[in-house]
Task: structure prediction
Amino acid sequence: MTDLFSPISIRDLTLPNRIAVSPMCQYSSIDGFANDWHLVHLGSRAVGGAGLVFTEASAVLPEGRITPNDLGIWKDDHIAPLARIVDFLHGQGAHAAIQLAHAGRKASMQRPWEGERLLSPGEDGWTNVVALLDD
Ligand SMILES: Cc1cc2nc3c(=O)[nH]c(=O)nc-3n(C[C@H](O)[C@H](O)[C@H](O)COP(=O)(O)O)c2cc1C
Result:
């Protein structure tokens, strides 16, 4: 237990403890934007003392989202609401991390609690799903 609450350095980064919050998809964004949900979801973990807080999977392209409600970072307008969260995390002594993500062939799905099925363009889904082919 002593190690859990002691600092750890990874290259130039020193975390105050070894408690890290894993990325957890919230499917609560509109057009990729972070909002108050993300501030509270992530911020409350920092208030609880986690040394490192990861965002959920954050899509690097709109067609790389799992659902239309994924968090994203594909346009500059996404920066300010994310920066607000980062500032809050830093104010609590936590470090912020982001999980960059592309859903590949898992894209254009309905949110899990709504049925988790493929969405058509008429339902906010998209057809330009891209993925690597297996050998
Ligand atoms: C609600 C929820 C959402 C998750 N979303 C992601 C995600 O966005 N990206 C990811 O890599 N893993 C995701 N995971 C997996 C977790 O990050 C973690 O790897 C998993 O819960 C195993 O860790 P544990 O053994 O400490 O629970 C999610 C897990 C949960 C419970």
In short: The chain has a mean pLDDT of 96. The chain has two helices and six strands. The chain has one domain: 8-123. Residues 79-91 form the longest helix (13 residues).
